[in-house]
Structures
1.
Amino acid sequence: MTTRVVPKIMKQGRLMPLLFVLPAMLILTFFVVYPTVNTIGLSLEDAEGELSAATLCIEDQPCWGIFENYRRVLTDDVMLRAFRNNALWIVLMVTGTTGLGLLIAVLVDRVKYEPLAKAVIFLPMAISFVGAGIIWGFVYDYASFGNQTGILNAIVTGLGSKPIPWLTRGPWLNNICLIIVGVWMWTGFCMTILSAALKGVPAELLEAARVDGASEWRVFWRIIVPMIMPTITVVITTMVVNVLKIFDIVYVMGGGRPDAQVIATRMYQEQFVKYNSGLSSAIAVILILLIIPVGYMNIRRFRQQEAMR
Amino acid sequence: MNKKSTLSIVLATLAIVALLVSACCPPKPTEEKPSTKYDCMGGEGSTVTMIGVWGGDEETYFKAILEPYLTECNITLEYEGTRDQAVLATRVEGGNPPDIAGLPNPGIMGQYASKLVPLADVINLNDYSAAWQSLGSVDGTVYGAFFKADTKSLVWYNPKAFAAAGYEVPTTWDEMMALSDKIVADGGVPWSTGIESTDATGWVSTDWIQDILLRTEGSEFIEKWTRHEIPWTDPAIKAAWQEYYDIAASDTYALGGADGTINTPFAESLYPLYLDPPAAYLCRMAGFAGGVIAEQYPDLTGIEDYDFFVLPAKSADIGAPMQGGADVFVMFSDSPAAKGLMAYMFGQEAGEALAESGWGLSPNSKVGASAYPSALSGKMAAAMNEAPSFSFDADDRMPGGINMDYFAAVTEYIGGGDLDAILTRLESKATEAY
């Protein structure tokens, strides 16, 4: 009879796993859990975070008790427009970046100067949001007199039309102009990840399909897309979270005019311009609630992938 | 040479020198008053505590103006500059107020009235216009005096372009609108109305609207509106918005129409007046516009090449009130040193020192236009002190950051928003904020 001697240190007690996760738990508690709980608390209080939000209620007016800040957020039409704009951002920017990223990744896969092309597309990612906002501010610049500094309006007036106020003509043009900047910045990110996934598609699979007579179109939709679907999902969910929190571009390019506000700029205004921590916390909580399902989808996808291995 | 002759030569030389000296420089009338130049009121050697709103450069300017008096009377000034009104409130509540306090606007004065020292015996109130005195009063007693002010209700123009086109400075609102029509008829654009100011875009419009309200309803209306005793949906307020809209969002009156108004940075909206030929003729802008023009067009000189007139009256009874900002000083202590310092601060000399520094305009009417470094600022000070009343920015004094909502709302309105919906929204924000 042989007894296997396992060194004591190798044995996992009940405490050992806890010790391993402890540092991460501590950091998360300090930097994520505590601020979240605190924000939820503040969202139920007044502007100074001193009294319950229920005290903000006005007689003979609709009131949601301690959820009064939420009522104000959800009934304010500037805020509702911010939700609408954010939805537009998600639809256009996520499809724009993922679609263009995938298209470019597939196309550059077939050319010799692939690294150069990819570097150029990726370049905007290296520019700060503020820098990009200023650069695009010049593109969209509008002058009511004198020369047009903005390239778009220089072209428009050159063709004999009146200059167009790209960033202030609501409710669609201004948002679309801002979203184009977002797409310009983030397409490189999507392209890089999708391109890496493309390289992972086995060449023999593609070759077999082509030998069997599949058109390139068919190869793309029937083989490449299904093969890289997990990556596409990750890219999409990452972009959705990114766009939900979009702030910099909107803020730098006009400070978030009433027609171009998004959730994050509203939150900023309430907190840092109007010093209303109650309302801004309520907006923050709503933003968290919107992000949670996306995060959940991402985690579920991740688990499924793990299970497949 | 013997000693005697040496001495006589020395004496003769001295006599000649003395003669020469007295001839070239006759003794001045005795001007120097070693310790009587200022009335120290017996406060020599003591300390005055003061809380003011100025810090940084402004604090330096302010202290430089007080310096001669402080040195002369050997008074130590303990100055604390803070924009946080809670600092003063806490100290007053704690029974430890500063001797003198500077407040950003007189609205705050009322809450301290019972603890303040009336100024009638401290400073020479006759140097201040009735408008200033009444602003500094609580229930008929003057407690606050204004040290430095600026002006907003000005319309800038180009005198040479006016002369070339045969236009005259309007003296009434109707004349101003008739001039606007005339400019349109001549193929020009009368107004340059840019309001762009990043995330505060719209504040210029709120000043415009307040100017219109001041001319239709008077300054008391503004005070009530500020306290939310008049709702945003009041017909007078709506009418003022519309009147402003008819200028700033008009394709014929405003350069670039509504788009030009929303997109042109407010400071840049002064430039088209000084192009050749001018792209516009009138621009309503605060006193700082003079500095903006001087910086953009260094070759132009004030009054001659660029000038202003006060936004004219709509009715003779109300006249043309001046909108602007001013810092009011109050006294919590009647110590001799504090009284002496206040008397100096609000006397002619300190007012002239302020004028000369170019830091701001003095509400003291003894300070003549010649005290200012430029004819333009002298004219501005005169316009301010001659105005029938002075009105502080209403929205800046409203609680809960409602001014930011107001800025956004007025921008939205120029862009084509529905006025009734916008005013109703502002009213509900105001109801929540008060």
2.
Amino acid sequence: MTTTDTRLLVTAGDGTATPRRNRRRYTPEGRRSLLLTVLLWLLVLYFVLPLWWLFVSSTKSNSALFSTFGMWFGGDFSLWENLQTLFTVRDGIFLRWMLNTLLYSVTAALGATLLATMAGYAFAKYDFPGKKILFSATLGAVMIPLTALALPTYLLFSQAGLTDTPWAIIIPSLVSPFGVYLMRVYAADAIPDGLIEAGRMDGAGEFRIFWQVGLRLLGPGLVTVFLFSLVATWNNYFLPLVMLNSSELYPITVGLAQLQSAASQGGGAQALFSTVITGSFVSILPLVIAFLFLQRYWQSGLASGGVKG
Amino acid sequence: MSHSPALTDERPASIQLPKRRTSPAKRKQRLAAYLFLLPFFVVFLTMLVVPLVYSLYLSLFESKLIGGEVFAGLANYARALTDSAFLGSLGRVGLFFIIQVPIMLGLALFLALALDSTRARGSKAVRLLIFTPYAVPAVVATLMWGYLYGEDFGPIAQVARAVGLGTPEFLSAQNILGSMMNIVTWEFVGYNMIIMYAALRSIPAELYEAAEIDGAGQFRLAWSVKIPAIRPAIMLTVIFSIIGSFQLFAEPSLLNAIAPAAISNSFTPNYYGYNIAFINQELNYAAAIAFLLGLVIAIVSYFVQLAGERRERVGAADRETQP
């Protein structure tokens, strides 16, 4: 089965270094279509309006939430009060959850990126016995449903006394088979073999070549793998839900879900709904901002090395 | 040991001496390669392979009130295959896959092609705005849509009432699966669009030149040049979508809080497995369900790839026979 995977997933992944394609643009007379523009922007509304609602709602008091039109501001502007409640509810646990998420996802993403880069580089630039089978195993693993592993991993971790610790979230998130695949394709393209040979001629060791030549050329690929591993851990709900008991260790996803269920059980009597909504809004800001600021890197990382036709 | 054709490309011709024994330099390089791979494969083994095997092992036992853990053979699997709750949950995610994935990927492909054609104004902003939901965790997306769907103060219901359409029941038992499809579509169209768009951007110019001489229009160009060229990327999104839809967890578990009547504890296989393991404490049975789910995903992925390959072959043959 894995052989089929290999053929379908990778066309450029056989380790051959192909020359970089020139960035052409095929623009037939550069004509614009009004119809297409309108259609696309209508579709944009579908993706943006829910987020607009989330922003508008986080500026409303709990009562205005239920009595005013959802898509526009109404009642008093209570964003500051909501933020104040959010950051003081249960002794400021929301901030703790945000920091936990940051800690888990940044650590896991850094680790996953490093492991995937080293492995991808080895697959792209070396020849060694067992290369094919190891790479096929990696690709096959892309298909293993990670949530199916949560239960056995939980049992193994609880025997090792690792459940209800940050390690229970970080260690399983270090495996990124898709990251290895991406880095292999990217490294094959981005690092000329001549440069590695030249490094060897100069008497540099293999690891020095990797750190000083390889990593420098892998920039956009690194950002891409880092961001996508970051999102995977940041957005994960199942694994922390299974692994963690203490609410001080929760990441933001599990924390918000808990706040929400408390709000539903309270029948909305307290200001909890507006707290959940404001919390949801605040929690998505860091990732959205990261993607906006790093777009130049991750987009070129995907385009030039990532997924080829 | 076999020399792959890739290897010959990577070395200057002078080094390719016809000697069989590996030189010390080459041995050093091999060692370096293994060391580069080591950290990844240590984690790979302990976090993927060991849990998988352990899951299989657990699923072969049964916990008895008297006697503790006893070997049960395939009893847990037999139970799962006759468990209407499990089969129902599989049917539900299967239905989800058949309906939602074509809509989501069709929309993503349309958007990617539209952006690639550079015919629309503000393409760059469109691309980023549509991608943004990917940065929103499934938990937040579900919470948010849960409020948007709300019958009393949800904005969709407010608008529907204002224009005299009555109150739509997004959270009723019949509609909840559709409502969930909408949430997942909202979350992942942008992600799939970006993968396809990235592939479209790296189509070599020569392919277009041939079509240009042909005088092909935008639709012909998309259909007979662009889509075949990015087939591997499309297949990748299909595989990811199979995995995603069969593993649905956050969406049902959060919607359960606001629509308990519409979401049973076996709404999706994963949600069922979680409830069996952590509410009912039937670990062995839960392991069997997790393993079966993995098997189903692998089988579905395999057949979808097979179908994709066959189509590719047929497509290629068609193109060749055309004058």
